[in-house]
Amino acid sequence: MGAAIAAKHFIEEHGYANGSSSSFIGFDAVAGFDYTQKDSVSCSLCANHYSRTV
Questions:
Q1: What is the distance between the alpha carbons of residues 11 and 46, in angstroms, rounded to a whole number?
Q2: Backbone torsions φ then ψ of 33, nearest 5 degrees
Q3: CA-CA distance, 48 to 54, in Å (whole number)?
Q4: Lower Cβ count inside 10 Å, N or C end of the chain?
Q5: How many domains does the chain have?
Q6: Which residues touch 51 (CB under 8 Å, ≥6 apart)?
Q7: 23 has which bridge partners?
Q8: pTM of the entire structure?
Q9: CB-based contacts of 39: which residues, under 8 Å, 6+ apart?
Q10: pLDDT (tens digit, 9 = 90+) per residue, 15-36?
């Protein structure tokens, strides 16, 4: 069974996580979505300070 069909069945049975609707931003927003990627960023979430890509 495909992931989309499984998700559809889950939502039909259990509802959305936030109780009301999906948080999908819409196709128009996706088409205009842009991002930049940075590598070797030091992670500050723990004492190890691993290098990661964000």
A1: 35
A2: -70, 135
A3: 17
A4: N
A5: 1
A6: 39, 40, 41, 42, 43
A7: none
A8: 0.35
A9: 51, 53
A10: 877 777 777 888 999 999 888 9
